Every structure is written in structure tokens, then in C-alpha cells.
What we know:
Layout: H1 15-38, E1 47-51, H2 54-69, E2 74-77, H3 79-85, E3 94-98, H4 106-117, E4 133-135, E5 150-160, E6 168-173, E7 176-182, E8 187-191, E9 195-196, H5 205-218, E10 226-237, E11 244-245, E12 253-257, H6 267-278
Parallel strand pairs: 1-6, 4-12
Antiparallel strand pairs: 1-3, 2-3, 5-8, 5-9, 5-10, 6-7, 7-8, 11-12
Helix pairs in contact: 1-6
The site of flavin-adenine dinucleotide (FAD) has 18 residues, from strand 5 and strand 10.
Amino acid sequence: xxxxxxxxxxxxxxxxxxxxxxxxxxxxxxxxxxxxxxxxxxxxxxxxxxxxxxxxxxxxxxxxxxxxxxxxxxxxxxxxxxxxxxxxxxxxxxxxxxxxxxxxxxxxxxxxxxxxxxxxxxxxxxxxxxxxxxxxxxxxxxxxxxxxxxxxxxxxxxxxxxxxxxxxxxxxxxxxxxxxxxxxxxxxxxxxxxxxxxxxxxxxxxxxxxxxxxxxxxxxxxxxxxxxxxxxxxxxxxxxxxxxxxxxxxxxxxxxxxxxxxxxxxxxxxxxxxxxxxxxxxxxxxxxxxxxxxxxxxx
Length: 299
Ligand SMILES: Cc1cc2nc3c(=O)[nH]c(=O)nc-3n(C[C@H](O)[C@H](O)[C@H](O)COP(=O)(O)OP(=O)(O)OC[C@H]3O[C@@H](n4cnc5c(N)ncnc54)[C@H](O)[C@@H]3O)c2cc1C
């Protein structure tokens, strides 16, 4: 999502963006069978993209045109149609329906994966020499593989209440990017800030305030919701925003890292590509970890 106030970019993808979109689309196609195998619900009521003021409207239009240009199913709506679909938001100046967007609860996915793996998950390094070592330590990779990945802090809130929201709302409120994801049982996730930083990911007063201001202006009923949790995590960003999946050049060492904003979406595709890499398949060049040589090897 573009940073605050950045609305001048034309609605054309840059090369890396379309490569990333293609990966995301391929992984999205794998999600229904992946979710079924894990017995995790996948919510497919789509995402309503919305904006409040004139600047937000330009962001909605730019994003809608970009996604339509990349082949997504995008329907631009007037305010009346948007309200008929989703009455919970207050006044919106612009809206677009992204019907193919799906949502899943990442905690439910992780818990299902851990249950499936059972006793094979150990809290210490195995003593035997492994056939393959997969590096998947998030925003901080061990040396000598650390250099392509940096932490980009994201803060999110978990709220509880009944505001009658039936699908994901995503958009801009006076330039502030925000989304609200309703979950069964009344939980709502509000996110997400985005900030480059060197320290540990901590929840900040400013981050929480910006999220709450934007979310409550977008959905006024959230004012009465319970604020259950605020948390911060580092997204593992790379220089080209694409993950690192494949061989390192060191025998038996394979990163599955650098998934930045799309690690959940890209999980099934990553699992497949990683298994192929471990079995000796050539990596997808756009994900090849060797595309970022260590600093001393660069010209
Ligand atoms: C606020 C926010 C919102 C997001 N929203 C979305 C979204 O809507 N859709 C989406 O697809 N993605 C989203 N993401 C991105 C997604 O969460 C990441 O891409 C994904 O979590 C990266 O997965 P990972 O396994 O590389 O790292 P992590 O999820 O960070 O997991 C790394 C794990 O490794 C462990 N670890 C670290 N060091 C060691 C060690 N030395 N030994 C053993 N274990 C270690 C850590 O404790 C951690 O459990 C979001 C991220 C944030 C922060």
C-alpha cells in the first residue's frame, strides 16, 4: 500500500510489481485446497476498497485501475451501491469491489500447521547433520544471509464488537492507509502502520492513534468496540519486495524468507517452491536468493 500522501504514481505497474502480483495470484489459486487440507476457513466475500476525501478517491481510482490492468476482477461502485453492499462505513467518496480477494486468520493457519506437524517440531537444532536447512527466521536472518532483508514495522489492533461489517474494508482515510478485517465471533483486525526502523518492533502511541483515528472515521460504530490487543511485528522486506526462496550456493541451505507484506498469501506457493528447491529444481529467477550477492561481491 502506498505511504501517506503518495498519490501521484501512474496506474501502471513497475516490472517488479507485476512479477510480485503474478506470484500472489498463483499462490491465491492454491489457497482453497491449502485451507481445505488444514481445515481452516477461507472467507471469500471480497474486499471493499474505499476512500473518504478527494485525495483518497484518487488513491482508490489509481489502485482499482492498477489491479484491473493486472487482470483482477475490479468493479468501481458509486456511494449508493457501496452502502447497499456494506452499510457499516460512514460517508465514503469512492469505492471499488475486489470480488476475488479472500481472507484467512493467520493464527488459525499457524495453529493448524503446528498440529499437523506435531512432535516433528522441536525447540532446538537437531544434533544430526540435516540434509537441508531452511532459513525462515523472519526479518532477521543469520549471517551470512542477513543482508537482503530488513524489518519494516507494522502495528495492528484487535477489536471486538458488532458493527455489522461482512467483508474486508481497505482504503484511505485522509491519506492514512487502513484496513478493517471482520472475523467470525466479532473480532476485527485493524491495520496496519508501516515504518522502516532499526530497533525492535514496539507498539507506538502515534501508530495506535493513527489506526484508531482512521478506523473510527471509516466505520463510526467502532468507537464502541472493545480494544483487545495492540501488537507490532517486523515485515521482512527485501530490496525488490520479492521473497528469497531457493538455494544459497551453500550446500543444503535454503531461505524461505523476505516475504514482506505477503507471507501469508504466499505460504502455499512458498511451500511448493521450497520443496522443489530442496529436491534440486532450479529456482524461479525472480525469487532466487543469489540475486542479492553479499555486499563485498557487488560491483
Ligand atoms: C502488521 C502486519 C500485517 C500483515 N498483513 C499481512 C497480510 O494481510 N497478508 C499477508 O500475506 N502477509 C501479511 N503480513 C506479512 C506476513 O506476516 C509476513 O510476510 C510473514 O509473517 C513472514 O513470515 P516469516 O516466516 O518469514 O517470518 P515470521 O512470521 O516473522 O516468523 C519467523 C519466526 O522465526 C522465529 N525465529 C526467529 N529467529 C529464530 C531462531 N534463531 N531460531 C528459531 N526461530 C527463530 C520467530 O520467533 C518467528 O516465529 C503482515 C505483517 C505485519 C507485520
